Amino acid sequence: MTKSVTTEISVEELRELDKKHFLHPTTPIKEQQVEGPELIFESGKGIRITDVNGDEYIDGVSSLWNVNVGYGRKELAEAASEQILKLSYGSSFFNQSHEVVIRLATKLASIAPGDLNVSFFTSGGSESNETAFKIVRHYWKLKGRPEKRLIIGLENGYHGVTMGTTSATGVPEFKNMITEIAPGFLHALPHQTECEKGDKSHPNYERSIRGIIEKEGPENIAAVILEPIQGVGGVNIPPEGYLKSVRDLCDEHDIFMITDEVITGFGRTGKMFGVEHWDIVPDLMCVAKGITSGYVQLGAVMMSSKLRDELADMSEGPMFHGFTYSGHPTACAVALKNIEIIENEGLVENAREMGEGLLKGLKYLEENHKITAKARGLGLMAAIELFKDPETGEGFAPELFAAPAVVAACKQRNLILRPLIFGGMNAVAIAPPLISQKQDIETIIEILSDSIKEFEQKVL
Ligand code: PMP
Fold this sequence. Notes:
The chain folds into two domains: 144 residues, Aspartate Aminotransferase, domain 1; 271 residues, Aspartate Aminotransferase, domain 2 (3-Layer(aba) Sandwich), CATH 3.40.640. The protein contains 15 helices and 15 strands. The strands form three sheets. The protein has a seven-stranded mixed sheet, sandwiched between helices. The protein has a four-stranded mixed sheet with strand order 1-2-3-13. A hairpin with a 6-residue loop joins β14 and β15. α4 packs antiparallel against α12, α5 runs parallel beside α12 and α13 packs parallel to α15. The longest helix is centred in the last third of the chain and has 22 residues. It starts with 10 loop residues before the first helix and ends with a helix.
């Protein structure tokens, strides 16, 4: 029996226990039940992760786009351990507080765009977005305008898996699990800059955010939510001017603009926050993932003190919203240290520089393979798409599972990437930790190239 490298329990036993007792997130249950888990991780260091068989992989997607500073950072372990020994838990309900949550809120205020200087803490991305939806609806209710409640998201947008965030999500597969979404969520076509600027003659006008606002009436719309760059929906980078056109549209109609920076926050795109590429400031900004580089669970919703003060002036009694782990001391201590690492090691700049190399590499793949097109990326958030015929845009038959096959071929070569296959797309996402170096990027491109070649030989 193969023994796990560092534990007494055998790999076979682990697999059986996994099958018996563990319901995995976003995994085909039957596949897990028949085959057991594909990988069982045991340790991680830098950009590499090792499984229980002792096989080492480059983590080319920072796990779930979240391990920004890489694995195994002693400073983060120490920050967590010191905080647990000092104050293991402290509630911030009922107007209580503790030092590390105050310091984190202050730090976030100093690095967030524009006037976003107040944070509400959560345990992750879904909770952050869900909180933002409740805050905007609460605001309009307090204003005596409860009908101003509709929330417009974008098709291919991803915002989480709670009821509200599932409903705001525009990737249809995530709605398959349920029969009914939460009321009051609508979806617009992404990246329709001309429509958002007011071009009513455009064929997509009715499906644009502006077209939907016009149809539903701005008096019924509470907010628009969008990712600066759509992640799960395909690493879709907006055209120049798009985010500004949405910002102006929201201002014009007194509608909140919520940006979901759960992936794009904390340096991923080569700026501290994604919106900084387009110089706009949202009304509410939701973050998670990279805030702690995935070492512990944390998310936040940021807003201006002006908005907070308006809520204060209109409120009577508490805002009945809060999670037991809102502002958990360990999470806050790790976040502070994580942000310090990102700043001290120049990881935002590194992501920008390495991202240029990564995109160059992907463009090279595009030119040198018959089935690749649409290489795109900003910082270390990138993707490339696979087509049977890139010239005509003809895709591969779904039964070929093109992107999953290429990703599986990468895994054979000890590189973990992620297929993005929603809506018939066959994209491969590449988003390594922000500490990646030139050699790492070259290795990723080389392995991806060999894996694409292997798939090409099978299907062409
Ligand atoms: N928003 C975006 C843009 C995300 O990518 C994700 C997670 N992939 C979420 C929200 C949900 O975050 P969580 O899984 O932490 O709830």
